[in-house]
Amino acid sequence: MIRKALISDLETVKSLTEACAEKMINDGIFQWNDHYPSKEIFRKDIEEEALYVWDDKNQIKGCIMFSPEKDEVYYSAKWLTQDDKNIYVHRLAVHPKFQKKGIGNKLMNFAESIAKKLNFISIRLDTFSQNKSNNKFYESRGYQKLGDVFFRKQSEFPFHCYEKILN
Q1: pLDDT confidence of 156, banded at 50, 70, 90?
Q2: Domain residue limits at 136
Q3: Are 70 and 34 in contact (CB under 8 A)?
Q4: CA atoms in the 13 A half-sphere facing the CB of 31
Q5: How many domains, the chain?
Q6: DSSP 3-state assignment of 73?
């Protein structure tokens, strides 16, 4: 089931994303590191009630953060829609032991469903240009690839911006 993350979930969520980072690094994808995602970022997500977890019988297998808060780096992006009612997705992660079982899709379905219910016009996100499977994942869900943004503390390579207009 999907539920809002609690402060008591902080260590588990951080461990989950560390396992994801380790798997990506082993796969030659240098997307997450010591700087990102940090425990402080997850603490803020939880305090703002923006982080959700996939909880299967008290075992957290995945997480997703979404919020209407637009990060500064996104101001340079050319989006499909005007800045009005947009949701931004960050930190979608599924523990490597549970990947390829549909949890990522279910977390995205959840975010899209909430966004529609709250009358948001689109969902925006970015994903690392060197993470081919993530790019394919979002494109298969109907997200349109737009321009690039850079997170220099994470990589010299760009992150592709994506947007999906909600009907």
Answers
A1: confident
A2: 2-165
A3: no
A4: 28
A5: 1
A6: helix
